[in-house]
Design a protein that fits this description.
The structure is a single chain. With 423 residues, the protein is an all-alpha fold. The protein folds into 2 domains: 198 residues, MFS general substrate transporter like domains (Growth Hormone, Chain: A), CATH 1.20.1250.20; 218 residues, Up-down Bundle (Growth Hormone, Chain: A). The protein is 78% helix and 0% strand. The longest helix is centred in the first third of the chain and has 47 residues.
Length: 423
């Protein structure tokens, strides 16, 4: 695929896009609806609900790096999606049919661990189908379909939980898991290049697998990992804090406002993700990432300037811009940095683990700041961290797409608009 021709057929690429839309809900299990279900139907106390929610989060964090390593080694990446879907479906059924705390906690841990397989497996399938040249546009399309799926399934789950039965949300996850299995198996296995899918092919088409130590010694991976952790540390707590601010006035519409915040961001992510894929291919990764990193500190400051719910919801547009860009560009940066190493998915998983830990720490630190100083101070502190992340990216992180840098230099010297080879 060095000439840029995709290995995957148009039918396979369309199946990949549908898979991203369907998996958007499956990978999170019942997510935020679990707390509502356990409280309303099982009458669990907050401590028990917290344990169940934490079990999924912890298993997901701990599972991401091993999931990446497993994805690199697996010859048939499709089977990883199948295994993950089966695990999530089984865990969802166990939650519904078990009346005791330990099995539900165990089920949530299984859902978290299995869900960690989805992002690395889908990224690998994508790279194996289209190759590095066409990866930016395809990742952009993947994320577009993923965010659209998030919106559709959130609406569907809300309607089922409100008008049919709260248990219906669990069965929705099971149904979507079955559909995701059927969809991924429509992608012929022979169209997925195993060596390409793990980033083992270099620019000359030779296969090479580097040691993990070589990855750890790559300064660029360390810098990007640090930038990503700081970004997620600054970003993760902003929406929950906003939800608390919206509920301070005891306005009965606070849940509606919160839903509007989430939907607003997701709606913005749909076109932003599509644009980010094209922009990363045309202009390189760093400039596009800088846009996503730059809007985050602005967003935090804007939250402190108004208490009007409509204005606060409008600020969520910036959340959609930042998250939409990061979801696309981060995968491309990792693919660039690990090309010819055979460790694309392991690195992707490790970055995911690091950013998840940063997000978890964000909630703890922001909560302490709110308790002692207030909400405005917390937003400003998160904005300060976001500014550090943007500065680190701008100063220390190089452009990872060498082909785009070469193309820019040729344009600057009037050498025409000939298309550069990737890598």
């Amino acid at each position: 695929m060095l000439n840029g021709a995709p290995r995957g057929s148009a039918r396979s690429l369309r199946a990949l896009e549908w898979l991203n839309a369907i998996v958007a809900d499956v990978r999170a299990g019942v997510g935020p609806y679990l707390a509502i279900y356990l409280r309303a139907r099982r009458h669990w106390d907050p401590e028990q609900i917290g344990l169940a929610m934490s079990a999924m989060d912890l298993a997901s964090v701990l599972g991401q790096t091993p999931a990446g390593g497993l994805t690199d080694r697996a010859r048939d990446k499709r089977l990883l999606v199948v295994a993950a879907a089966v695990g999530v479906a089984a865990g969802s059924l166990l939650v519904v049919h078990s009346q005791h705390v330990p099995p539900v906690i165990a089920a949530q841990a299984v859902i978290g661990a299995m869900a960690a397989l989805f992002p690395t497996a889908i990224a690998a399938i994508t790279l194996g189908l289209v190759g590095p040249v066409r990866l930016p546009r395809q990742v952009g399309r993947n994320e577009t379909w993923n965010h659209a799926g998030n919106i559709a399934t959130a609406i569907l789950a809300g309607l089922i939980g409100s008008y049919l039965a709260r248990e219906g949300i669990f069965y929705l996850v099971v149904a979507l898991s079955i559909v995701s299995i059927a969809v991924v198996l429509t992608i012929p296995g022979h169209e997925i290049d195993h060596a390409e899918a793990r980033g083992a092919l270099d620019t000359e088409g030779h296969t090479h697998v580097s040691s993990v130590r070589a990855l750890l010694m790559d300064r660029r991976i360390g810098i990007f990992g640090l930038c990503a952790v700081l970004f997620h540390f600054a970003n993760a707590a902003m929406l929950p804090l906003l939800g608390q601010v919206l509920s301070l006035g005891k306005d009965h519409r606070a849940p509606l406002y919160m839903s509007a915040c989430i939907i607003t961001a997701q709606l913005v992510m749909v076109p932003v993700a599509a644009w980010a894929g094209r922009a990363c291919a045309a202009y390189g990764r760093k400039w596009v990432l800088m846009i996503g990193f730059s809007v985050l500190p602005i967003r935090g400051v804007l939250y402190t300037l108004t208490a009007d719910p409509i204005a606060l919801i409008a600020v969520q547009v910036l959340d959609g811009v930042g998250a939409g860009i990061f979801g696309v560009a981060s995968v491309l940066v990792v693919a660039d940095l690990t090309r010819g190493t055979g460790r694309f998915n392991l690195t992707n998983g490790a970055i995911g683990t690091a950013t998840s830990l940063g997000a978890s720490l964000s909630h703890v630190v922001s909560g302490l700041i709110v308790q002692h100083v207030g909400y405005d101070a917390a937003f400003l502190a998160l904005s300060a961290v976001a500014s550090i992340a943007a500065g680190c990216l701008w100063i220390a992180m190089p452009e990872t797409s060498d082909a785009r840098r070469s193309e820019a230099r040729r344009h600057a010297h009037g050498e025409g608009h000939s298309r550069a080879r990737y890598g």
